[in-house]
């Protein structure tokens, strides 16, 4: 062997010694916490002889180390070390980092890792997309989960039915962005469900169930029922929760016949009805367009015999409600007898229902007031404290019977008992006094209500309050009878329009304007159409009584106009005629009655299906000339 050979051999040995020394130094540095450039001892193999930056085995080893990291700081340092050593992260590296995000409780960081992959143009498999979506949902980053799903579709990877179900549940159960609430959640759920159908992905039973639940929560019961019907048409056997949710939507919509069909189908599929199932059917009896009290008692009977289910307080309350809505108080008392025999504790809500039932026929039966008072006394003997609903039901019965004296007595007892009135109670009290032709006393309690509303805003009079006060002043016979009576007394048809009684109505209307309940007709009168110089008064949202008072107010406001302020024509819009509804005709008749009593010339017309009254400018001027300054 020549000298050159020995020389080459010595050089090779020296080079190997240098590499071993360097690797040893790196390991010692890493072990002491001062690794070069952040080098971790677990990645020291990167500095060993023969490691290739393009070696898949080296990347795999790095990924194994990454998965064992206990913090994000640690994992990011190791990734940096990989890059410093010339190894570029691949899909499996990013997945390893995402798994660390999951393990250390930072799923939101996984979305950042996904975005880094996208920016680095790393090709991803379906498993990576699924993991990114799963972690985005865990972090409640729902928009990002949908975005990643869209990226998945964009690269041509199919979105499975299972993944759609996962996303549908997330949208149905959670808010996104500024638009919140069950209605917005339903809209987003529907959009994703439609996308699934458009992608020719067969919806799983859980997808239908999720949409049904979302619609039910948003009170879109028609949609819930239609979706359930589609599920059945697809030949899918619903789960118990799906059945019960759909049944509840049918019950709330009053679809008793359909609910009973589904009930039978549910039993035929081996799902025995529970107490909630029977109570849902009873609710359907209550909400049916024609309340089905007989069917309710049949369901009640089956519940105990065939179903072997013990009724609860809700069961009896629904039976009583069905009887009340059907106008059969005797059946409400039958339900109460069953409840009492069952040993269920009698609470104020049940007795309130019975008081309501006893007062149903107060118009025809003069003993109804006495019957409700007897129940009220029995309530107190049982030690059940009456609440504001109790007193409201008693006063409502007095209103039907036109018994103002008893209504006031009940109100005073309520105050003595320390029960605070609410807006509904004041409304029924004012109604009771009005129906008994005691308008001045009705006005007194209206003022009490207004005074108390200064410290309790929930007592602020609403439209129902104002309408009730208007009715109290106009009288039970309506505006026509009040006008006829005034005309007989004065001999002048127009006297009602100028009476002190109507002046009081105008004052109350002005208070309604002040509280934002009604429009200021002075402003409306001064508003002109650009071309015709006419004005339009819209009364299509008012009741007949409100339209009567608004027209009386309109006349008074007209009387203050000067000649140059009179519109070319005045159009009073009464609303559209709708089949089966006579609201527009009733408003039109009320407006006509007042204008005729005031001797205002007018014409009746139609625009499409809308009813309106037109008063020409010259007739407005003629009426103003005669009546200016004549109102009280």
From TrEMBL:
Residue span, PROP1-like PPR domain: 143-288
InterPro entries in UniProt: Mito_RNA_Proc_CCM1 (IPR051114), PPR_rpt (IPR002885), PROP1-like_PPR_dom (IPR033443), TPR-like_helical_dom_sf (IPR011990)
Biased composition annotated in UniProt, kind: Basic and acidic residues: 1-15
PROSITE patterns for this protein: PPR
Gene Ontology MF, one: mRNA binding
Annotated keywords: Repeat
An annotated GO BP: RNA processing
PPR repeat copies, ranges: 204-238, 239-273, 274-310, 312-346, 387-421, 422-452
Source lineage: Eukaryota, Viridiplantae, Chlorophyta, Mamiellophyceae, Mamiellales
Stretches the record annotates as Disordered: 1-25
Name of the protein: Pentatrichopeptide repeat (PPR) protein
Name of the gene this protein is made from: PPR7
GO cellular component labels: mitochondrion
UniProt keyword Repeat, yes or no: yes
Pfam family for this entry, one: PPR_2
């Amino acid at each position: 062997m020549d000298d050159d050979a020995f020389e080459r051999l010595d050089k090779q040995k020296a080079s190997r010694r240098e590499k071993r020394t360097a690797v040893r130094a790196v390991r010692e540095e890493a072990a002491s916490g001062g690794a070069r450039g952040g080098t971790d001892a677990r990645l020291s193999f990167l500095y060993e002889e023969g490691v290739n930056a393009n070696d898949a085995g080296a990347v795999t080893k790095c990924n194994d180390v990454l998965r064992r990291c206990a913090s994000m700081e640690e994992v990011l340092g190791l990734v940096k070390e990989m890059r410093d050593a010339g190894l570029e992260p691949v899909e499996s590296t990013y997945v390893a980092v995402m798994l660390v995000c999951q393990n250390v409780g930072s799923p939101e960081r996984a979305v950042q890792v996904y975005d880094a992959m996208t920016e680095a143009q790393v090709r991803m498999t379906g498993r990576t997309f699924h993991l990114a979506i799963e972690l985005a949902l865990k972090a409640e980053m729902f928009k990002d989960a949908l975005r990643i799903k869209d990226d998945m579709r964009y690269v041509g990877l199919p979105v499975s039915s299972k993944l759609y179900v996962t996303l549908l549940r997330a949208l149905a159960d959670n808010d996104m962005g500024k638009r919140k609430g069950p209605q917005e959640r339903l809209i987003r759920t529907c959009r994703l469900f439609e996308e699934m159908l458009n992608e020719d992905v067969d919806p799983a039973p859980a997808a239908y169930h999720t949409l049904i639940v979302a619609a039910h929560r948003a009170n879109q019961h028609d949609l819930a029922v239609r979706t359930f019907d589609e599920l059945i048409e697809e030949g899918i056997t619903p789960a118990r929760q799906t059945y019960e949710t759909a049944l509840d939507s049918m019950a709330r919509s009053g679809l008793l016949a359909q609910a009973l069909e589904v009930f039978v189908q549910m039993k035929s599929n081996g799902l025995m009805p529970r107490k909630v199932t029977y109570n849902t059917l009873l609710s359907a009896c209550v909400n049916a367009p024609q309340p089905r009290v007989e069917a309710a008692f049949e369901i009640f009977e089956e519940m105990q015999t065939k179903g072997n289910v013990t009724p609860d307080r809700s069961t009896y309350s629904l039976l009583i409600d069905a009887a009340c809505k059907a106008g059969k108080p005797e059946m409400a008392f039958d339900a109460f007898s069953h409840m009492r025999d069952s040993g269920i504790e009698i609470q104020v809500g049940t007795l309130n229902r019975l008081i309501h039932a006893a007062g149903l026929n107060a118009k025809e039966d003069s003993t109804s007031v006495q019957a409700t008072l007897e129940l009220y006394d029995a309530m107190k003997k049982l030690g059940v404290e009456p609440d504001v609903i109790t007193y409201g039901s008693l006063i409502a019965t007095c209103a039907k019977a036109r018994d103002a004296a008893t209504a006031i007595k009940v109100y005073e007892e309520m105050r003595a008992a320390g029960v605070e009135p609410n807006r509904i109670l004041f409304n029924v009290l004012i109604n009771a006094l009005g129906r008994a032709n005691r308008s001045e006393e009705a006005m007194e309690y209206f003022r009490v209500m207004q005074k108390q509303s200064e410290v309790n805003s929930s007592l602020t009079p609403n439209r129902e309050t104002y309408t009730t006060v208007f009715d109290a002043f106009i009288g039970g016979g309506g505006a026509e009878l009040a006008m006829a009576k005034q005309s007989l007394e004065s001999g002048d048809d127009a006297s009602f329009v100028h009476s002190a009684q109507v002046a009081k109505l105008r004052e109350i209307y002005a208070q309604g304007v002040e509280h934002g309940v009604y429009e200021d007709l002075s402003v409306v009168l001064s508003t002109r159409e650009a071309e015709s110089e006419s004005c339009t008064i819209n009364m299509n949202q008012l009741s007949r009584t409100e339209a009567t008072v608004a027209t009386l107010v309109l006349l008074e406001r007209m009387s203050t106009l000067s000649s140059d302020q009179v519109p070319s024509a005045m159009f009073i819009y009464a609303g559209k005629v709708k089949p089966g509804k006579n609201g527009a005709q009733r408003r039109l008749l009320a407006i006509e009655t007042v204008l005729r009593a005031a001797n205002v010339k007018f014409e009746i017309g139609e625009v499409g299906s809308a009813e309106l009254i037109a008063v020409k400018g010259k007739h407005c001027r003629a009426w103003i000339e005669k009546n200016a300054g004549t109102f009280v």
